[in-house]
Amino acid sequence: MLYTHAKKTSEELFSNDYDESLTGGAVDRNWLAILTERLRETELLKRHEQREILNRREEISKRLKSKTEETSVYSKEEGEIGDIEHAENIDGKHDENLFDKQWSKYSNHRRCNENKTHDDNSRLNIDNIHIISTLKSRDKKSLPINNDIYTEDNNKDDQLSNRRQANIIKQKETAHNKPPQVLLKIRERKRKMCHAPFFADIDKRVFVRINIGQNGDSPVYRIGKILDIVETTKVYQLGNIRTNKELRLKYGSNESIFRLEYVSDSEINDKEFKRWRETLIKQGISLPTIHDIENKQKAIQKYTNYSLNEKDIDQMVEEKQRFRKTPLTHELETERNKKRSESISVISTVSGQSKMGEIPRIVHFITGQGDSSNEQLKLYGPILPGVKLKQAREFELINYLCLLAARYILKPHKIYVHYYKEPKSYWWTKAKNDSDLKLTLRKTRQITSIYGHKLYHHAHRGDIMRLEVLLKYGGIYLDLDVLALNSFDSLLKNKLQKQTILGYENENYNAVCNAVILSIPRSQFLRRLYESYQSLNATCWACHSVMLTGYLATIYSQETLVLPSVAFYEPSYLNIEELYYFDTYDFRKNYASHLWNSFIGDEFLKNLTLDYILYPKQLTTLIKMIRHSIGIKKLQKINKDYKRNQILKIE
């Protein structure tokens, strides 16, 4: 698409003509003065980020233009790369981006293959999806501007000039050419970790931007180095918690104590940095070096996957109790102790059996999340091409068999089933009472929305619940139509030290399904995925759970391992006959197999019986898989119990 917007400078684009302190005229300064500290910091941070983006874009555009004029090379669309991106963001209109194109192709691909099973009249169009523009603008990492990228280099060996070598050596020795943003710790992180046992270890020797007061209507900030965390006699509110912890800061040779609430959420600007640097130089204090920063980063990294033990939890609970305004009632105390015991049970199980970095050997299933009414689903629910979505069916035989397969093949320390509304069926009762399964049931809150977006279908509600469960406990999440086939031991050892392990549903479209997820507790990748639901499109079936997951996994590949589709998602729904009609598929390379209940459950799984598995007229891959995972003897016993129950019902 050819963009024809006129070029504008950063000054013209940056509204209100803000000065170096990011404030405008008298009206703007008065408005900022009446805001709370948090709101003012948030607004100034937005302005700072906007200015940085515009300045960087303008600089890149100028360099590209200069380079293009020298080489007489222009883009096919008679414009420059920088101008196209520039114009697109000025107007706010986004043409179909790479993500949208991939999903459009993928959804069309699905519809074409679903013609084998579904009537053409039931197809619905979901080609136009634009759900990640906010996420892309927030998470997109800006490239550093380096003069050497855009200058000619006539040396064939591409050797560094003496000047560049000197600059590199200088950068390694000191870090005082720009603000030490790497060591900057913002207030929100401090609030979350305030009661953690490692809070002091992480924060010492970190630089913060601190509000030291007002100069007229303008707040005054300084850069301070945290020397220690101290406890005082004054208790104050910090977000939704109460604490008496304060920071002992050093600015130059001066030391003072400040509350955590005075730490700024904004980055250090150039003016503040220059003042801080000059102060240190005048007082003969050494500046921080790159080596100091790297050492601190290593110290912080040590606590990334920290597992809380029982002593840590006792300490945190006791500390929070000290600062409560009112004592807990007996009922609340009982409920809190129950939740705490549950957490300790999981943590001790994990820490007692897993080494650092390994994925906990616990399995999670989710059921009973409920749906909106059929009328609401029809009007507002997600659109699955070629399939009319209905409310969730009762807990069925295939769900029970998937639980058994997880127990026999994966051999977990615990199997959790998380539910809001407990199912009512013969197979659910059978699963609860099965001595082999030993299920741990956990009632959860009902999830009906996220970040203000309503969730109408149980599958979308389950998408959120699985992320919350894995963030808290870690382990293996499986959909109730995923049949475990071979041991996950090699994945649980997590030799590559990844935070999350997933599998491709379709590698050609970068589609990464969430029916199987392995994760450490508090995975940063799953946190990113959870926060991405701020841009949820609730009418799209798999935009977040499949396509956006793949998009994020590509960006944050250092945090994730995405396995080939054969790991969990073969036979594919595109070759569904290999699963339900033929018996030629070799599943020895599968860790598990997704049975695609949402697509073909009504046709194949709803009326599945044990007689069909034990005495089939035609052997299929599904039957072979079930026999492999559970065993003929166990299946015969289950069938015998079921028929006895049916006879008792008749009598």
Automatic annotation (TrEMBL):
MF annotations from Gene Ontology: DNA binding
A Pfam family annotated for this UniProt entry: Gly_transf_sug
Annotated ranges, domain Plus3: 174-305
InterPro entries: GlycoTrfase_DXD_sugar-bd_CS (IPR007577), Nucleotide-diphossugar_trans (IPR029044), Plus-3_dom (IPR004343), Plus3-like_sf (IPR036128)
PANTHER family, A to Z: ALPHA-1,4-N-ACETYLGLUCOSAMINYLTRANSFERASE (PTHR46830:SF2), TRANSFERASE, PUTATIVE-RELATED (PTHR46830)
Protein name according to UniProt: Plus3 domain-containing protein
